[in-house]
Amino acid sequence: MSMQATSPRDRYRAVEIEEMRAWVRFYRRAGDPDMAIEILALLDGDRQARRDHMALYLLCRESLRVHQARTERSRRVGHFVRLACATLFVAPVRALRRAMSRSAGLVVECLPETRAEPAVRKLRQLNAAERQGVPGSDELQAPPGSAVGAPTASGTDDARPD
């Protein structure tokens, strides 16, 4: 049986090949902002790796700048949409509610009276009759020369002797 012995050099080449594959995967995933942060942390810690993979370092920096610009744009668009919705939908409703609350008292005052108090009606009738000077109005008229509240000449008063 012959077994082929793997030399340390072959194992070293296999590790180098896997390392190169890992770096290639890093290059492919450098566009992901989360991965870019991790790669930058790794490269910032190892100056030799940063010199060897300067393009990867720059790709990660570019990826983070694009992500930040995209986030800022989304923030501005969101602010505009909130402002537009508030202007188009919320502000008119608030203005209408404010106008309705201020004018509620005025509307109530403008409504016609549904039922007048009987005493107030009678008072108006008496005032109107007094202004017109209509004889035979409901007002008690005392004969001239007699005192108000004095018994009349007919001699009938409410108090009867027993």
Number of continuous helical runs: 5
The global form is rod-shaped
Main sheet attributes: strand count, strand direction, barrel closure: none
What proportion strand?
under 5%
**Count of beta strands:** 0
Descriptors:
single chain, about 160 residues, mainly alpha
Structure overview:
The chain has 162 residues and is an all-alpha fold. It has a domain at 14-110. The chain has helices spanning 8-29, 33-45, 47-52, 54-110, 118-132. α2 (33-45) packs across α4. The radius of gyration is 52 Å and the shape is rod-shaped.
Strand-helix topology:
Layout: H1 8-29, H2 33-45, H3 47-52, H4 54-110, H5 118-132
Short description:
Helices cover 70% and strands 0% of the residues.
